[in-house]
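>> Question from a student workshop board

For tomorrow's exercise we were told to take the sequence and the ligand below, predict the bound structure, and bring the output to class. My setup keeps failing. Could a helper post the expected result so I can at least see what it should look like? The ligand is NAP.
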Amino acid sequence: MQTRPFGRTGRRVSEIGFGAWAIGGSWGAVDESDAVAALNAALDSGVTFIDTADVYGDGRSERLIRQVLKERGGERPFVATKAGRRLPQQTVAGYTDENLHAWIERSLTNLAVETLDLVQLHCPPTDLYYHPEAFDSLDRLKKNGKIRDYGVSVERIEEAIKAIEYPGVVSVQIIFNIFRQRPADLFFDLAKKKELAVIARVPLASGLLTGKFRADSSFADDDHRKFNRHGEAFDVGETFSGVPYDVGLAAVDRVRKLIGGDVAMAQFALRWILMFDAVTVAIPGAKNSAQARANAQAADRPALPQSVMDELKAIYDQDIRPHVHQRW
Ligand SMILES: NC(=O)c1ccc[n+]([C@@H]2O[C@H](COP(=O)([O-])OP(=O)(O)OC[C@H]3O[C@@H](n4cnc5c(N)ncnc54)[C@H](OP(=O)(O)O)[C@@H]3O)[C@@H](O)[C@H]2O)c1
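>> Workshop helper replied:
Here is what the output should look like for this input. Compare the format with yours to find the bug.
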């Protein structure tokens, strides 16, 4: 497993991380033993970066991470969490100093640490980026030793561009995958210039880019791939990256033809992300140890040839771009 510098923080993290949303909730049932095995498999495979949030399973994800890290002992991985989504409704007014402090205290308890490695604002309303008070609060939390660093998790590139004007922002988490290529055009040069850590989320387009789904695949009622397919509960871009399911399946068929040898499509999709040196870490979610292990092993795959990169860009431009490019 290779590591990359986490922006200007002086720390390094594995280039494949572990996305801990699915072991929290909103992805159908994931029992505790599978969740624990998934985390252990990732860590055993050299993963040193975990992404979670206070709302994943209402804290279940953070608490499972605490449990696994306590059982394992030894050197701790970098654990990034998020704050803001405990608000009953997303409003700028909800991001008070008091609320931010309370959310962070809860994550400190859930994770059983004195200082959080990284807190990311969890896709707040766009307007929050025009309110320096929220960033002042984060600076105070940093000064008080509650958080080591802070960053943002954004829906839109334009939000990221605004957010990084605040000098304390060290990282940007954004959707980046074969079906979401716009950050490479518009954000990565800037991110490199500013020495930001870039966390590529939803790297498998919610599993679409594993190639395992069919038109008649079904999902549990409590899986966002059923209940949020049209953005009913949160930004539709978080579900299959906002690509209509049938369009995604057709594009996946085209991607399949490009994969040589015995490579699994999930590893191919993750390796594609690692081709971009502006990316610090890709954070695939995994619900069991086999998925976690396979995802971590993507880091060992050889680089993709330029011809394949060009073909993947063409698939994006022709099939996917009209559905996502202008939206995020
Ligand atoms: N707003 C935010 O900040 C935000 C939003 C979304 C995600 N995130 C973060 O980004 C992380 C990753 O995104 P994501 O979990 O939404 O989507 P993802 O990584 O694109 O897809 C994860 C899902 O794909 C399936 N899968 C994973 N590896 C596989 C493999 N090797 N073979 C077959 N299937 C596999 C699993 O579900 P099934 O087995 O059920 O198909 C898994 O839950 C999250 O865990 C979270 O940490 C943050």
